[in-house]
Automatic annotation (TrEMBL):
Name of the protein this chain belongs to: Chromosome partition protein Smc
Name of the gene: smc
Function of the molecule: Required for chromosome condensation and partitioning.
Record note on domains: Contains large globular domains required for ATP hydrolysis at each terminus and a third globular domain forming a flexible hinge near the middle of the molecule. These domains are separated by coiled-coil structures.
Location relative to the cell: Cytoplasm
Length: 199
């Protein structure tokens, strides 16, 4: 499994459609200060479901949408699509290539897609569990991340190891199961109350 390409349109400093192809091996993005290198990693985290605008170095939701420049008008939407090679089947989906896309509008609407089929953020989170490429995965190591891992508390450090060991999926499923169990217990208790009233 490897990241094949990223397509960016309207995201931060990329008004026109921009495609970056990642060949096997190492790809370096170089450029002068302020030319948009970090915006590429922001785009990757954003499409993978980053919800915190602060961690994308913005203040409000629309800060990820191109705000205009001397020659170009501001845009009303942005979209980022990430294509992952899945020939080895690491992603639990029946496709050899998977494209995850996120579109957001200034109005606040936002939508996720897997292979052009609209989906929930939850579906993307589940698809990427234990691969290390989720928004909280360790595949994006930005400035300060290593320090954060080393100086973090035991439970947050444990999460990194659990993701690498492939067991976060089970923790997630356990938590989901516990939530469903709680809802079922509440429903059962309501049914018992109604039953008692009718009797
Ligand atoms: P450095 O090497 O200094 O870290 P960089 O190449 O990583 O810089 P970025 O931080 O990715 O650069 O990009 C900063 C640029 O992105 C700034 O010029 C900023 O004006 C521009 N930018 C950020 N958000 C938007 C937006 N919503 N609309 C237009 N431009 C934006």
């Amino acid at each position: 499994m490897h990241l094949k390409k990223i397509e960016i349109r309207g995201f931060k400093s990329f008004p026109s459609k921009t495609e970056i192809i990642f060949e096997q091996g190492i790809t370096s993005i170089v450029g002068p200060n302020g030319s948009g290198k970090s915006n590429v990693s922001d785009a990757i985290r954003w499409v993978l479901g980053e919800q915190s605008i602060k961690s994308l170095r913005g203040d409000k939701l629309e800060d990820v949408i191109f705000a205009g420049s001397e020659n170009k008008k501001p845009m009303s939407f942005c979209e980022v699509a990430l294509t992952i090679d899945n020939k080895d089947g690491i992603l639990d989906i029946d496709y050899s290539e998977v494209t995850i896309k996120r579109v957001a509008y200034k109005s606040g609407e936002s939508q996720f897609y897997i292979n052009n089929k609209s989906c929930r953020l939850k579906d993307i989170k589940e698809l990427l569990l234990d691969t290390g490429i989720g928004k909280e995965g360790y595949s994006i190591i930005e400035q300060g991340k290593i320090d954060e891992i080393l100086s973090g508390n035991v439970s947050s450090r444990r999460k990194v190891f659990e993701e690498a060991a492939g067991i976060s999926k089970y923790r997630y499923k356990k938590e989901e199961g516990e939530k469903n169990l709680k809802i079922t217990k509440e429903n059962l208790s309501r049914i018992c109350d109604i039953y008692d009233e009718i009797e």
